[in-house]
C-alpha cells in the first residue's frame, strides 16, 4: 500500500518552497517506462508551468487536488484562454482531465498546493511535452510577467 498522508504532502510542499522552480514532485511509478505515470506535484504561487500539450504520442493528463487551490487553463492555438477552472475542495471542484493535443497550464493559487497527476507512460523527456510557441520559456524574465497577467485575468 502506498500512503498519501499529511506528512508526505507537508514534506513535498517544503521541498517545493525550497526549490528555485517552486515545484517538487514525488513519483509513485517505479520508473519512467511504467505504462501509467502517477505522481504528486507540489506547487507554490509563482511557479510557472509553461503552456504545453501532449501529442506525438497523444496523452491525456488528469489532476486531482490533494491540498490548496490551483487554476487550470485551456488555451486555443493562438494562446487565448478558452476554458478555465479553479480546483478548490471547499468549492467542490476536485479535479480535471485534459484531453490529448490540448494546450494547458496550471498555476498554484495558495501556498501548499499539491496535485495528484496521472497520465499514460512511458515518460520520455524528448517528446513528453510540446511547448506553446506563444508562451515564454520557463526561467525567463518574461515568464513571471506572463504568469502574473494570466492569473490577474481571473483574480483582479
* Total count of helical runs of at least 4 residues: 2
Give the name of the CATH architecture. Sandwich
In CATH, what is the homologous superfamily? Answer: Jelly Rolls
H-E string: HEEEEEEEEEEH
Distance between the termini: 43 Å
Point out poorly predicted stretches. Answer: none
Tell me about the largest β-sheet: 5 strands, antiparallel
CATH level 3 topology: Jelly Rolls
* Count of beta strands: 10
Write up this protein.
With 156 residues, this protein is α+β, with helices and mostly antiparallel strands. The protein has one domain (6-140): Jelly Rolls (Sandwich), CATH 2.60.120. It has helices spanning 6-18, 141-155; strands at residues 23-27, 36-43, 52-53, 61-67, 69-75, 81-88, 95-98, 103-108, 113-120, 130-131. The strands form three sheets. It has a five-stranded antiparallel sheet with strand order 1-2-9-4-7. Strand 5 and strand 6 (81-88) form a beta hairpin. The longest helix is centred in the last third of the chain and has 15 residues, at 141-155. The radius of gyration is 15 Å and the shape is globular. It starts with 5 loop residues before the first helix and ends with a helix.
Which helices and strands, and how do they pair?
Layout: H1 6-18, E1 23-27, E2 36-43, E3 52-53, E4 61-67, E5 69-75, E6 81-88, E7 95-98, E8 103-108, E9 113-120, E10 130-131, H2 141-155
Antiparallel strand pairs: 1-2, 2-9, 3-10, 4-7, 4-9, 5-6, 5-8
Amino acid at each position: 500500500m502506498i500512503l498519501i498522508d499529511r506528512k508526505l504532502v507537508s514534506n513535498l510542499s517544503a521541498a517545493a518552497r525550497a526549490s528555485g522552480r517552486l515545484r517538487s514532485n514525488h513519483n509513485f511509478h517505479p520508473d519512467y517506462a511504467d505504462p501509467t505515470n502517477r505522481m504528486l506535484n507540489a506547487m507554490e504561487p509563482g511557479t510557472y508551468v509553461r503552456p504545453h500539450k501532449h501529442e506525438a504520442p497523444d496523452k491525456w493528463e488528469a489532476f486531482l487536488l490533494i491540498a490548496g487551490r490551483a487554476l487550470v487553463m485551456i488555451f486555443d492555438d493562438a494562446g487565448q484562454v478558452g476554458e478555465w477552472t479553479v480546483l478548490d475542495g471547499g468549492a467542490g471542484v476536485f479535479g480535471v482531465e485534459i484531453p490529448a493535443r490540448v494546450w494547458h497550464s496550471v498555476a498554484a493559487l495558495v501556498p501548499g498546493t499539491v496535485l495528484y497527476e496521472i497520465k499514460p507512460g512511458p515518460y520520455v523527456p524528448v517528446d513528453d511535452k510540446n511547448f506553446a510557441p506563444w508562451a515564454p520559456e520557463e526561467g525567463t524574465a518574461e515568464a513571471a510577467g506572463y504568469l502574473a497577467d494570466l492569473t490577474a485575468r481571473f483574480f483582479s
